Structures are given as structure tokens and as C-alpha cells.
Amino acid sequence: MQDSVQIEARHLCKTFPMGQQQVVALEQVNLSFREGEFAGLVGPSGSGKTTFLNIAGLLDVPTGGNITVMGQPSDGASHKAAAALRNRHIGFIFQTFNLLPVYTVFENVEFPLLLQGMPKSQRKDAVWQALEWVGILDKAKARPSQLSGGQSQRVAIARAMVKRPAIVLADEPTANLDAKNSHNVLQTMVKLNEELKTSFIFSTHDEKVIQYLKRKISLEDGRVVEDSEAEARKHEAELQ
Ligand SMILES: Nc1ncnc2c1ncn2[C@@H]1O[C@H](COP(=O)(O)OP(=O)(O)OP(=O)(O)O)[C@@H](O)[C@H]1O
Ligand SMILES: [Mg+2]
Fold first, then answer.
1. 172 CA closest ligand 1 atom index
2. By alpha-carbon position, which residue is closest to atom 13 of ligand 1?
3. Shortest CA distance to 54 belongs to which of 173, 171, 157?
4. What is the pTM assigned to this prediction?
5. How many domains does the chain have?
6. Helices and strands (H, E) in the chain, number of each type
């Protein structure tokens, strides 16, 4: 893949119908994300952060422009092709954890591998490894109702990481956590980013998250108004 670009948005637009009107959620967004990113989308409520993550993760489609994920342009791709690309390369972490209450921690983390059709013995090894990454081996048999918020979020990270995706998209991952758990969860993500080169793209309002970011992208009314990496590149070019 050229320059290890993993996600490339070009002139991305998204409007939602609201009665007779159209709500503009994204307008002409141009952004590229490379292998190993630790980037965050920040901006006021309604600025388009979740909409962008949903489109980047192939959970939603743009109304204009295009998005290329792992070298594959999504326009014209079938539902099935998008799902296959998503299952293979992308892990999601949601603000509300979205764990399945009737399953144990182990079974929750195993779930994406079942969808992939991985054989049982391989699944077991992968799940134990993922639980170890997030330091929650001792809770493997617990059910989500028996976990704290921080533990639940760590299970959600393990579930996102178990198939070793190239990219993890995390929508306000610390919104339901206290300060100590937020730092623990972020440190886990930093470790996975450094050791496995997994790319993380966040949406966040949280200063605690922002201080860990390698790249900060600000959105306002569906537009990118600031991108720390673009500014660094511009500055470098000026120095040369
Ligand atoms: N399914 C939908 N139908 C109609 N409008 C929507 C839909 N999803 C999002 N929007 C609108 O699109 C805009 C962007 O929403 P989005 O959820 O991306 O914002 P956000 O930056 O994630 O906000 P927050 O920080 O509150 O999570 C908002 O005006 C929102 O009302
Ligand atoms: Mg949002």
C-alpha cells in the first residue's frame, strides 16, 4: 500500500434528511490516516466526529466524495464487500461498551472471531492473548454486569483488538470512565499502538485523551478547521 495510508477521505460529504430539510454532518472533509496513527477528532457536539468514524469504519456511506480503506475504494463496493473489509481490518470501541450481557467476558471477546469462522483452538489462544493485553485475565468468567466501567471498557478494547485489526476506531472511549480508569485505558491503547503498530482514531471531548494524542484534528460544523499533522508538515516545508 502506497505510503502505508490506511484510510483516505476525499471531499467527503454526509447529509441526513430531517423532514423537508437536510442536515449537513460532513462537508468536504479531506483526511488521510497512516499506519501507527494515534489521532483524535475533537470539536463541539454535532460537529461530525461520530459521522466521520462511522463512514471510515464502513458502518455508513457518504453522500458525496469517497473513502478508501486499506487501499480499497468503498464507492461501488457491495454491502458484503464492505462487511468483509471491516471484519478483517477494523475494530470498534463505543462509548457505551456494547458488551453482550448474557455472555461472559471470554465469550464477548471471542465473538468477532466466531464471526470470522476461526477454529476453536486458535480462538482460545487469541482471546487469552487479548485479555492479557488489557490486564483482565482474572475476569474471563465474569459477566458484564459484574464489572466496573473501567473493566468493561478494557473488555471492549480486548474485543476490538482480538482479531488484530490494522485500525481501531474509538468513539468517546473514556466518556463513561473516571480519571484513573481513563488513564489506565489510554495507557493500554498507547502500549498496543507502540507494540503492535495498531492505528487508533478517536473522537473525544476529553482533555485526558487529548493529552495522549500524537495528532489532533478539529472539526467544526462538519469541516476540518485544524489538523496538527498538516500544520507540522507545512512548518517543515517552510524550514526547507
Ligand atoms: N442519523 C441521523 N439522522 C439525522 N441527523 C443526524 C444523524 N446522525 C447525525 N446527525 C446530525 O449530524 C450532525 C453531526 O452528528 P455527529 O453525531 O457526527 O456529531 P458528533 O461530533 O459526534 O457530536 P457529539 O460530540 O455530540 O457526539 C449533527 O447535526 C447531528 O444532529
Ligand atoms: Mg459523537
1. 27
2. 25
3. 171
4. 0.92
5. 1
6. 8, 10
